[in-house]
Design a protein that fits this description.
EC 7.1.1.-, 12 helices, quinone, single chain
């Protein structure tokens, strides 16, 4: 790749990183307003509350940036960046369309994206530990326990797709994709998507930030733009998890007229899955910490193992 090509790819990834999470955030305001009858988000700025996101940004920018006196100052200040930057790195490896429409092709793409996503959760752990607040520490510990529980089904469900395609590359998986994969990989897709929600601490898996119990978990002591970075990381995580689910289990850019409209199919599938994330927040009550752990180990892990076994049997039958 020449310098111009690299510059264009980097610029495209940055634009996606800066725009898509904000669109998801704006959509969440509107969807929740419709589902729950909220008036404020529907009127800010006039037509359909178009200025709600702008108002939120101005609000965060105006708030004082405070650091607790007993906090580990450097770790406290670094935590929002650690939570946010990994999602930017992951976007580099997610293919948007055919014919090289990807930031960078990574041979071990599944390993790369899942490893980098695991780094992002460290931001919450750092925030909880460095805040010198018992509620923040408790939220950080809940985050660690949730990560350990849901990382395994996430990896196992992704492994079933890699087995089916015979490659660890995300672009390679899409190159081998067949539509008849969708029904028998459906369980794996459910496991992957659900585990991704749990790692993002989205409802109903938001016990680590339960405001009724521990104020706001690891983020209790944060304010202003640092708190906004954690929110942006959450919305960026929704985009990344939805995009990865679309690539691994829904064919990514595959669809009618994929050569011309592949990027559109990818965006539509990612948008539909992001809507499901928002819908789950409105429709499902928060699970208890013990219920979250039980669901991971007694439901998702067995389902992911069953999916791998099914994939192995089908691969043997097809190749035979």
């Amino acid at each position: 790749m020449d310098v111009l090509d690299v510059a264009v790819r980097v610029a495209a990834v940055l634009v996606a990183f800066l725009v898509l999470p904000l669109l998801v955030g704006q959509t969440e305001h509107k969807v929740m307003a419709h589902m729950q009858g909220r008036l404020g988000p529907m009127h800010a700025g006039g037509f359909h509350g178009w200025a709600q996101l702008v108002a939120d940004g101005v609000k965060f920018a105006q708030k004082e940036d405070t650091v607790p006196a007993g906090a580990d100052r450097r770790v406290f200040q670094l935590a929002p960046a650690v939570a946010l930057i990994p999602y930017l790195v992951v976007l580099v490896a997610i293919p948007l369309g055919p014919d090289g429409m990807v930031g960078q092709v990574v041979d071990a793409g599944i390993f790369f994206v899942l490893a980098v996503l695991g780094v992002g959760v460290l931001g919450s752990l750092m925030a909880g530990w460095a805040s010198a607040n018992k509620y923040s520490l408790l939220g950080g510990l809940r985050t660690a326990a949730q990560l350990m529980a849901y990382e395994l089904p996430l990896l196992l469900s992704a492994a079933s797709v890699a087995m089916a395609a015979g490659t660890l590359s995300l672009t390679g998986i899409l190159g081998e994709f067949e539509w008849w994969w969708v029904p028998w990989q459906l369980v794996g897709g459910f496991v992957f998507f659900t585990a991704g929600l749990a790692e993002l601490q989205r409802p109903p898996f938001d016990a680590p930030i339960a405001p009724e119990e521990i104020i706001f978990g690891a983020y209790t002591e944060y304010s202003g733009l640092r708190f906004a970075f954690f929110l942006l990381a959450e919305y960026a995580g929704i985009v990344v998890v939805s995009a990865l689910t679309a690539v691994l289990f829904l064919g990514g850019w595959h669809g009618p007229w994929a050569d011309q409209l592949g990027w559109l199919w990818m965006l539509l599938k990612t948008g539909a899955l992001s809507f499901l994330v928002i819908w789950a927040r409105v429709a499902w009550p928060r699970l208890r910490v013990d219920q979250i752990q039980k669901f991971a180990w007694t439901a998702l892990v067995p389902l992911a193992l069953a999916q791998i076994a099914l994939t192995g049997v089908i691969k043997v039958v097809v190749s035979g």
